Amino acid sequence: MPDTPLRNRLSALLAQRPPRHTLPQAFYTDPEIFEFDLREIYGRSWLLIGLETEIPDPGSYLAMTIGRSPILLLRGQDGVLRGFFNTCRHRGAQILADGCGHAQRLLCPYHQWMYDDTGALRGAGRMPREFDKSAHGLNPIHVRTVAGTVYVCLAAEPPEFDAFHDHLAPMLAGHDLGNAKLAAECTLFERGNWKLVMENARECYHCGAGHPELARSFPTDVRGNFSTAGMVDLPGFIARMEALGLPSAAVQGEWWQASRFPLRDGNVSMTMDGTPCVAKPLCHVNGGDVGSLRWALEPHCFAHAVGDFLIIFSALPLAPQETLVVAKWYVHKDAEEGVDYTRDGLMHVWNETNLQDRALVELNQRGVNSLGYVPGPYSEASESLAIGFTDWYVNSVARRIGVAAPAQKLVDA
Ligand code: FES
Ligand SMILES: [Fe+2]
């Protein structure tokens, strides 16, 4: 629970916000609220990290930083994937540098305390005989997987996960992500608050004008959770996909959404000409012509699985007006670069899209910083997922500070 002055301030800001409007300025600019977001939003939510195949063998690890918290995921000799705070229990040094690799044991570079692959402290030279190593293992974090995808939560008590798992697992089953490999990764530094990055990522109101490459294959007139008006043949598409064994109808929980939607007529992948960019598909159903399975988690990500690749977009807050956007592309593990795909063919549409979005986010931040900024109304027809994101955020803040959530209505236009 934040201290009383911050709690009072947040409570007053929440009360100021008109329903279905963007947030008061301080939520996009204020250093104290940014620290609150790191602790109470990113520190308490499930976050999509990537695929299990990035940490495939005993000893393989993935280390990254969430907010101010270095974490690591490590597969033990017993095959179990475990997560830890990557912070030494001696004096707190970060143990492994961010990145991927192999480690049979974890050796802190500062004073060489040594941990095994279950996080237990095994070596702590020069400590007294009575020192209790068993009380100084690495602090664990929660790890869950869904059909080859990996999620972490840093909170002692994470949000309920099972409903998300049970809905998403059958939707992802046809995409064979257990046989995918990371083919490309791109990191963008954006001068914008993480919430502006995510509001942008939750609507396609701007896509027709802002994303000419994406708009070739992506139905930029989509509404709601890719689920209703504006997509004439959606029911027919869903029925066809489900008849092929691919659960596709839109589902959502408090902090997640998933649905399969058709690409524009004649397009089978999110590429410049709508044809697959990878010769060895991940999804073999219907020759890989399966639209896009989109799933998204508040607060930070979305993913699109088309027949031939998967892309994951993730926003990681760095400072009140700085966010790191990480995009990862995955293809079938047997697809060979230069033979079955090219990096440019795979990345072009989403690279251009992410660069265009960065420019929009930065424009947005500059305008929001103005003395003249006041919260503005979302389009209920075209920004309902952005409304859903800010409502989720406002409700999360209200819960953390112990006040009633402001009255809102989640629109699915
Ligand atoms: S801080 Fe890790 S061994 Fe001292
Ligand atoms: Fe965009």
From TrEMBL:
Cofactor(s) needed: Fe cation
Domain Rieske span(s) in chain numbering: 46-152
UniProt-listed CDD domains: RHO_alpha_C_GbcA-like (cd08884), Rieske_RO_Alpha_N (cd03469)
Lineage: Bacteria, Pseudomonadati, Pseudomonadota, Alphaproteobacteria, Acetobacterales
The protein, known as: Rieske (2Fe-2S) domain protein
Pfam families: Rieske, Ring_hydroxyl_A
InterPro entries per record: Rieske_2Fe-2S (IPR017941), Rieske_2Fe-2S_sf (IPR036922), Ring_hydroxy_dOase_asu_C_dom (IPR015879), Rng_hydr_dOase-A (IPR001663)
A single GO molecular function term of this UniProt record: oxidoreductase activity
Keywords annotated in UniProt: 2Fe-2S, Iron, Iron-sulfur, Metal-binding, Oxidoreductase
Top-level taxon of origin: Bacteria
SUPFAM superfamilies in the cross-refs: Bet v1-like (SSF55961), ISP domain (SSF50022)
